[in-house]
Design a protein that fits this description.
Elements (H helix, E strand, L loop, with lengths): L1 H23 L4 E7 L6 H8 L5 E7 L5 H8 L2 E5 L5 H14 L4 E4 L11 H9 L5 E5 L10 H18 L11 E4 H6 L10 H11 L4 E5 L12 H19 L1 H30 L4 H33 L3
Parallel strand pairs: 1-2, 1-4, 2-3, 5-7
Antiparallel strand pairs: 4-6, 5-6
Helix pairs in contact: 2-3, 6-8, 6-9, 8-9, 9-10, 10-11
Length: about 325
Amino acid sequence: MLKCLQRLCHHHQKQHNVNQTDAASPQPTVAIIAAYNEDRFVGSVVIKALRHVDHVIVIDDGSTDHTAHVAEKAGALVIRHERNRGKAEAINTGLTRAREMNASIAVLIDADGQHNPDQIPELLAPIQSQDVDLVVGSRFLGVRSRIPRWRIVGQHALTVATNLASGVVLTDSQSGFRALSNKALQALAFRPDGGFSIESEMQFLINKHHLSVKEVPVSVIYAEGPKRNPFRHGFQVLNGVVAMVSQHRPLFFFGVTGVLLLTVGILLGLVVVDRYNQYQNLAVGYALISILLAIIGIQTLFTGIILHSLRAFLSENGR
């Protein structure tokens, strides 16, 4: 009987020590890589990233090459999508796994080798010092990289549009090299149909969840040409920005549109009045267009006000 009690006490003491060890163990840092047919580069990215984080999660988004095998051999935890579901879904899968691991910081890095994993510590530092919730690696903050001119023009155009629409100002809205604190990790989830506009969507979510953000300079290497048509990609991102601004900032979206339509209607109406005063002849066509634009403008403006009020009400009630 005494021996049984001693064994039971020993078992409880051992279990207590294990629980204490688990509680004291630090939260891991992870890197998340969304990959689609990147077997040429993903292995080296994983190996280099593992020098700076505890775990690397690779989401093989329906690749038809050896991406998953190479990433696994390099030391990554690989999660496979049976079919290509897009970057937003791949990143969501990675974020979910990082949350399950209770990661302290999650680093998003591209699989094609354009980012330098040795710069990961520079993204981790502001979060580790508890200064900010999210860090963005900017290609346009003093570090000179060989970036094609057409890329620079396109990236700046998308950055201006995203900054104006989201209300969050960055120098590089399209950078895929980012670090998220545990707070940001818990808050962020992207629309499944977001495609390649998740970086822009992140700025809207930063505003929505009141996350603090900082940029650090990073370098990039473009080893090969773009896989997607750059103009088509740009329009996809721009279309995503328009969709998000209508969802996240309805007063801005519908309000600005309504004011513009109303202004054009009024100006056209003034032209009609001026012509009537000069020629004593009513320009019926212009008059009808003027009235139509004014009515649509007023309706659009009030739609923005109503949606803004509804969104504020739902936010206050936690919906």
